[in-house]
Design a protein that fits this description.
Layout: H1 2-20, H2 36-49, E1 56-60, H3 61-67, H4 72-78, E2 89-90, H5 96-103, H6 113-117, H7 119-126, E3 129-131, E4 139-141, H8 154-157, E5 160-168, E6 187-196, H9 205-223, H10 227-255
Antiparallel strand pairs: 1-2, 3-4, 5-6
């Protein structure tokens, strides 16, 4: 009985951790594993800006090339800069011990990052770096305060600062809270407003958001590269089950026809 109780508590722990949730309102996105153009752009961004520090040791270049409908020879020519073969895993040559001394902790493997934190978290996090002179790399992050990671996309996004101002109050689902008497949205003071200095980045805010979406979409694909196949197989499995249910129903009626 005691073992059963302990097992029940262990199974409920993920529910409690999910209920706690992040303290920052996350921006919501819908990842799309069937959007190959987005995934291809996301892989390009990932290889150029993330793979130098973070590994993806459970993902192979050749698997990404096949799933994203890219010729392997083009992937080898344009997306592999380390001399690796297209059939190898997406890793780098960074020494984990040196990385830990540089950043305070070794950069984590990102193959399952979306599974761990969610696509909304990754998307919001990559857009939430701001200037902070007190930090070692001169930046901080609203979603992950005091993170030991530089803003690797700063040249694309530009210089972003955190300011204070009035924002619309929202509930846990991101829906604006409305005053029951006036019908107007309720506002509140926030010092987590992020503003990009115009002309400091190579992209407009809309372009940068689209780039981060593509990056997040690719990372979501890496976390579940089988998703498209499982959805396709699952649909056929459901249709097969429905068909067999009909057949078994009439077979049951035939067997029991003479039973009163």
């Amino acid at each position: 009985m005691k073992k059963l109780f302990l097992l029940s508590l262990m199974m409920m722990m993920p529910m409690f951790s999910q209920a706690a949730g992040p303290s920052v309102q996350l921006d919501s996105i819908e990842v799309d594993a069937s959007d190959h153009a987005s995934l291809q752009r996301g892989m390009k961004t990932y290889v150029n800006y993330c793979l130098g520090c973070h590994t993806s040791q459970y993902q192979r270049y050749i698997r990404a090339a096949e799933d994203l409908h890219m010729p392997p020879e083009l992937v080898a020519e344009h997306l592999i800069f380390s001399g690796q073969k297209v059939g190898e895993q997406m890793t780098n040559a960074m020494d984990p011990k040196l990385a830990a001394s540089w950043f305070g902790a070794a950069p984590p493997d990102l193959t399952n990052e979306v599974n761990l934190r969610g696509a909304d978290w990754v998307y919001t996090y990559m857009r939430s770096f701001y200037v902070d002179g007190a930090r070692p790399y001169g930046v901080n992050n609203v979603v992950y305060p005091d993170v030991g990671m530089p803003n690797v996309l700063a040249e694309l996004q530009g210089i972003q600062s955190k300011t204070c101002g009035q924002v619309t109050k929202t509930d846990a689902h991101g829906v604006a809270v409305v005053d029951s008497l006036t019908g107007n949205p309720i506002t509140q003071e926030s010092c987590d407003l992020l503003t990009v200095e115009e002309g400091t980045g190579s992209m407009t805010p809309a372009q940068f958001d689209a780039t981060v979406y593509d990056l997040t979409n690719f990372m979501a694909y890496m976390s579940k590269p089988y998703k498209t196949d499982s959805q396709r197989i699952g649909m056929w499995a459901i249709l097969f089950t429905l068909l067999m249910t009909v057949l078994f129903y009439f077979l049951k009626k035939e067997f029991w026809r003479d039973v009163h």
